[in-house]
Amino acid sequence: QVQLVESGGGLVQPGGSLRLACSASGFTFSSYYMSWYRQVSGKERELVAGITAGGANTNYADSVKGRFTISRDDVKNTLYLQMNSLKPEDTAVYYCHVWIVIAGYWGQGTQVTVSS
To answer: Which pLDDT tens digit goes with each residue over 60-114?
Structure first.
């Protein structure tokens, strides 16, 4: 079955960096568009970044452009999100996501807290 497992979250000071990883299994990872979302308690989940199969194209939320970089390793079946110049408003639970046919799949999420 499809499994997505995020890791790499934690507490970081403003201006710091974190690298999130999402290990995928149960499907042909290299064939699918992958994305990162985030959610603050009480708010809707929002798209942060996406990357096409093969990695040729990426898209970002305006709020993270120039600070976050999405990438993928199709040999390791792993999706990454490099987050630099972190701000307190980046605090959220971060999820990776894949849409396969008519079903969407989510990981369990990893908490990112940006605070001094």
So the answer is: 999 999 999 999 999 999 999 999 999 999 999 999 999 999 899 999 999 999 9
Distance CA 19, CA 76 (A): 16
Is the torsion defined by CA of 7, 108, 87, 60 positive or negative?
positive
Helix (H, G, I), strand (E, B) or coil at 110: strand
Strands 68-73 and 92-100: unpaired
Nearest to 85 by CA among 11, 20, 35, 13: 13
Q: Could you read off the pLDDT of 17-72 as tens digits, one per residue?
A: 999 999 999 999 999 999 999 999 999 999 999 999 998 999 999 999 999 999 99
